[in-house]
Amino acid sequence: MKTYKKITCLLIAAALLLLLGGEVLVLKDAFSETPAPSQAILILGTRVYGQEPGPMLQLRLEKALALYRQGYAPYLLASGGQGADEGISEAAAMRNYLVARGVPDSAILLEDASTSTYENLNNSAAILRTKNLTQVIVVTNRSHVFRSLYLARLHGLNASGAAAPMSDRFGATVYQFARESAAVLSLMQYERSPSPTPSPTPPATGASPQSKSALPL
User: Fold this and answer.
1) How far apart are CA 57 and CA 29, in angstroms?
2) Taking residues 132-155, what's their average pLDDT?
3) What is the pLDDT of residues 158-171, one digit of tens each?
4) Nearest to residue 202, comparing CAs of 114, 126, 134?
5) For 11-20, 96-105, 113-122, 146-155, which range has the lowest pLDDT when averaged over its residues?
6) What percent of the chain has pLDDT over 90?
7) Which residues, including other chains, have CB under 8 Å from residue 130's CB and lie 6 or more apart?
8) Regarding beta strands 135-141 and 40-44, do their DSSP bridges make them parallel or antiparallel, or are they unpaired?
9) CA 107 – CA 73 distance, rounded (Å)
């Protein structure tokens, strides 16, 4: 019994150390990453309420608008599909928000099929390549910067990051940073696991953790 308890404690300690390592990566990019002049500004979608961007998405949009107005890039790419409880796609809600604030429709590109961060970057990279755009600024909230940039670069984009603020609710912010640490570790495990026939996009959450289909992003 003592041996069992010792092994359990060691496993718990190892898991906590891994999570701490993931958190260090998340925090580093959250507060040190800076945008570079690019060809497009990629705004990653998140919750829409009805047809209006939710608070976190509005923070991303305002950050992207500031960069666009400062001349960091001539195009804005809004990326995000439509959830079951959303009135329109996140991409469409972002376009409406941007147009209402003076951005010409011709400067806005849309990716409205994605349902995860992985798909955001996979689908957006494909759209950008058709227009010979490879230099991008990825705009998302602070806790999400590291994973978003990791995936952007994985998909061949020359990406820098621009961190929008987090929620003003302390508990929600702590939860988001903790969640990202676990998501980063899951992503890295997925990338390192062998797969003789890799899928272009990971299947839905809930698949067996023994293959790349387990990536819950």
Assistant:
1) 19
2) 94
3) 999 999 999 777 87
4) 114
5) 11-20
6) 59
7) none
8) parallel
9) 10
76 forms beta bridges with: 41, 108
CA distance 166 to 140: 9
* Pairing state between β 52-53 and 48-49: antiparallel
* Residues whose CB is less than 8 angstroms from the CB of residue 177 and which lie 6 or more positions away in sequence, other chains included: 23, 26, 27, 30, 143
Supply angle C-alpha 191, 32, 201, rounded to 5: 25
Residue whose structure tokens are 């961007």: 53
From the list 182, 178, 152, the residue with the least C-alpha distance to 166 is 178
Please choose, from the candidates 113, 77, 120, the residue with its C-alpha nearest in 3D space to the C-alpha of residue 95. Answer: 77
Q: How many CB atoms lie within 10 A of CB 106?
A: 8
Neighbours of 191 (CB within 10 A): 12
The residue written with tokens 């993931």 in the block is 22
Quote the pTM value: 0.77
Does the pLDDT value for residue 114 go beyond 60?
yes
Predicted local distance difference test score (pLDDT) of residue 207? 30
DSSP state of 50: B
Q: What pairs with residue 161 in β-bridges? A: 138
Helix, coil or strand: residue 19: helix
Among the residue ranges 58-72, 93-107, 176-190, the one predicted with the least confidence is 176-190
In terms of Cα–Cα distance, which of 158, 213, 172, 149 is closest to 56? Answer: 172
Q: What is the dihedral of CA 211, 212, 214, 217, to 10 degrees?
A: 170
3-state secondary structure string across 32-81: HCCCCCCCEEEEECCCEEECEECHHHHHHHHHHHHHHHCCCCCEEEEECC
